[in-house]
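Thread: 2-acetamido-2-deoxy-beta-D-glucopyranose complex, take 2
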Amino acid sequence: MLRFLPLLLVLGLALIGCVSSHEESGEWSCESDSEIRVEAEYRPGFITLDGNADDWKDIEASEFSLLPALDPHVEHEYQGGKMNVKALHDGHDVYFLLQVDGEYVYSKGENNKCPSVALMFQIGEDATYHNMGGCKERTDSCTSKTCKGHEVDIMHFSIGNAIPGRLYGGNPIDNGEGNGGDRFGHLVDVYAWNPHCRYLDGLGPSGNDSSAQNDWKGAWWHSSFNVHSGFVDEDSPYASGGQKGTYYFEFSRPLRTMDHIQQDAQFKIGESSKMSVAFWYPADGKPWHGSGHYSINCDWVPLDISLDSSMLTKSSPGSSGSTASVFALLLSAISLCVSVFVGYRVLKPKSVPFTPMENL
Ligand SMILES: *[C@@H]1O[C@H](CO)[C@@H](O)[C@H](O)[C@H]1NC(C)=O
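Output below.
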């Protein structure tokens, strides 16, 4: 073994050399930790979709550093803290909680001067995390045909017009028009093939499809707020700026949607999907721009939609289960024999002589 050590060292150095030269060339590189994942356990009747995170306290979080999405280097990490991502499902809907520390900033009506979040999911098998699906076509040539297989599903929530604790997303008016928009709170349902070919569900370069819907709902909150019966628009900015605290963003969506044009990710219980989370923050009061966001990872993060684990523990010890039923069968056979025997003894005709009625 010792003899091979120098060889291994040389090989190792060569590999390191390759990696660093790759980075220097300015090409995209990502070393994703294979351990990371988000687990959506089955916990029915647990979550109220109101932006308040108290009901999530027993749910385990996955913690992520927030690095710039386009240039993921540790020295440019979001200074406010890590992002905690929690998820669960109730058999019908999947729920997400994003929790990130940040001083309170809010500019009513100015989305870019408020924090903002997005979720992204893989739809098409060829859709890469990098470049939002990674279709090579340009704005004037991307279509559902030329970019087939590169579809990603995006939910984007910009809170400049969203009252904390109130529900936004899919609403009867925008869904009535058959698209993924949200004119009230800008919690929109979007699909993309790459960053330049990004559309509201139902709208697109090859025509509109009025069957599309905004399938998301969500709410936001900041820990500096005083909880009371409910904010209204006039309460804006809801708290004084600059207070330390935590932002909460809470979302839900049906596991399956009625999409039939490949614009929504579809989740399956017991299977894994691929997701990512983006975060925008107006650092030093400067408005953010679209590509200036942080991301939880430089590649997809697996999202496991778990089976009901209580059902699993009941059915998994299959062999001992069948032993028990064989034993029960044996017991019932024995008791049948015993009861036949007892019955026979009780009912056995005794040798009482026959006495005809007329002789009495
Ligand atoms: C699709 O819908 C958008 C927004 O409502 C509209 O501007 C556009 O003209 C529509 N396109 C077609 C081809 O109907």
